[in-house]
Amino acid sequence: MTSNFRHVALIGKYQASSAGAIGESSRQALDGIARFLQHQGCSVAIEAETASNTGLLHYPSLTVEDIGARCDLGLVVGGDGTMLGIGRRLARFGTPLVGINQGRLGFITDIPFDTYQATLPPMLEGDYEEDSRPLIQACVMRAGQVVFEALAMNDVVVNRGATAGMVELRVEVGGRFVANQRADGLIIASPTGSTAYSLSAGGPMLHPSIPGWVLVPIAPHTLSNRPIVLSDATEVVVEVVSGRDVSASFDMQSLASLLHGDRILLSRSAHCVRFLHPQGWNYFATLRKKLRWNDGDP
After folding, report:
1. Last residue of a domain, which of 67, 96, 126?
2. Distance from C-alpha of 112 to C-alpha of 101, rounded to nearest angstrom
3. Cα 189 to Cα 266: distance, rounded to the nearest angstrom
4. SS3 category, 113
5. What span, in angstroms and rounded, lies between the C-alpha atoms of 167 and 187?
6. What is the separation, in whole angstroms, between the first and last Cα of the chain?
7. Residue 283 belongs to a domain
8. pTM, whole model, 2 decimals?
9. Which residues are catalytic?
10. Same domain, 88 and 186
């Protein structure tokens, strides 16, 4: 077989277990996938942290930057969190990503592990569906200076501390004042993130083709403060007016502690994450499966 993707990088969980390494079953799974890819005619490299955590040192190892510069495809084995982490880092290179699910939900790592041997060969030959997901570019401004920057694929969340009362946040969209939100916090989610924290807080699901974000208050003081869908072509600004122990998180990974007067600026990143799915993939089938719609139907 001749693959359209000659140089494939294999990426596993970034977070090691409490024992300090990825489990033996995960190591064997990654090794098996690597051998399978080689049999398909691919040159295989292992992402450096994955190689270190698994002990799979008999394959070439590459940094994320080297993967972006040298590889035709990234194959991610894990859950959505693993995909989010590598997706943010590889987006600027335009490296396409395929996800094999070893996590729980698998909204964006959508190939079940037990089907990869049947699913991957046609994809490697070019038979796939491509799905581009935009990132959120965010920065925290303090006294006119940028004090923190991050990318998010899912969401940016501004919220109160665990023991503090509600926060007050001033929201502007496209330079226009929207409202002062008094709530436990505020979520700004992309279509990808609309099925994550935003959904559990009562926000709508956005189809990935919609160029928008959803702004969702968390436990708002005023019940008429409802989620709203915004265009991602306009900048959103969230200013901390009051509250204690206020923080901002970006895909629940990076965290910034905020002071009164800090402004979080959000805009659509110039970079998108490229997902490749098996031919016939569609978003609604994913929702039916992952959210267990129609359970009990014949």
Report:
1. 126
2. 5
3. 11
4. helix
5. 13
6. 40
7. no
8. 0.90
9. 80
10. no
Query: Which residue is it, tokens 């923080």?
Result: 247
DSSP string for residues in 54-83: HT-TTS-EE-HHHHHHH-SEEEEEE-HHHH
Residue 35 main-chain phi, psi, to 5 deg: -65, -40
* Residue labelled with tokens 């990825």: 22
Show pLDDT as tens, one digit a residue, over the chain (298 residues): 556 899 999 999 755 444 445 567 788 999 999 999 999 999 999 999 999 988 899 999 999 999 999 999 999 999 899 999 999 999 999 999 999 998 776 788 989 999 999 999 999 999 999 999 999 999 999 999 999 999 999 999 999 887 778 999 999 999 999 999 999 999 999 999 999 999 999 999 999 999 999 999 999 998 889 999 999 999 999 999 999 899 999 998 878 899 999 999 999 999 999 999 999 998 998 889 888 888 655 4
In a domain, 239, yes or no: yes
Whole-number Å distance between alpha carbons of 169 and 261 = 10
Euclidean distance between CA atoms 293 and 99, whole angstroms: 22
Whose structure tokens read 């494939």? Answer: 8
Q: Which two tokens stand for residue 142?
A: 């303090």
